[in-house]
Amino acid sequence: MFEVKIETSFSAAHHLLNYKGNCENQHGHNWKVEVYIQGESLDKSNILVDFKILKKTVNEIIDYLDHTDINELPEFKDVSPSSEIISKFIYQRVKEYFSGVSRVNVWETPTSRASYWE
């Protein structure tokens, strides 16, 4: 099995619904995102996926979130946009382009990460 990973980041505001504490108030993060792709076979160039294509695709997805109030985006209407939910959102979008997506990690801080995989 082969695996590749790319990293990117975005900045955005959000607030958690049904939460009692500071995070119920609007606040922002500089999220770090890691996207993993797995597969058993390589192409003629002996690569699993072209990093350039993967980065371009993921950054197009991330650009949609960047510098927004995530709560205001239609996909998050009436949804508490936790890091867990954001990682699932990114995973599902990446999966539309790459069948081998295996995991998405979303880092809210350097020490706090949420992941989603199927």
Domains, number: 1
Report the portion of residues in β strands: 25-35%
For this structure, the quaternary state is: single chain
State the separation between the terminal residues, measured CA to CA. 17 Å
- Helix percentage range: 10-25%
How many H/I helical runs?
A: 2
> Would you list the SSEs in sequence order as H and E?
EEHHEE
* Spatial strand arrangement across the major sheet: 1-2-3-4
Chain-averaged pLDDT:
96
Task: Kindly provide the name of the CATH class.
Answer: Alpha Beta
Stretches where pLDDT falls below 50 for ≥5 residues?
none
Q: What is the gyration radius calculated from CA atoms?
A: 15 Å
Written description of the protein model:
The structure is a single chain. This protein is of the alpha+beta class and 118 residues long. The protein has one domain: 2-Layer Sandwich (Tetrahydropterin Synthase, Chain A), CATH 3.30.479.10. Helices cover 24% and strands 34% of the residues. The radius of gyration is 15 Å and the shape is elongated. The two termini are 17 Å apart. The relative contact order is 0.22.
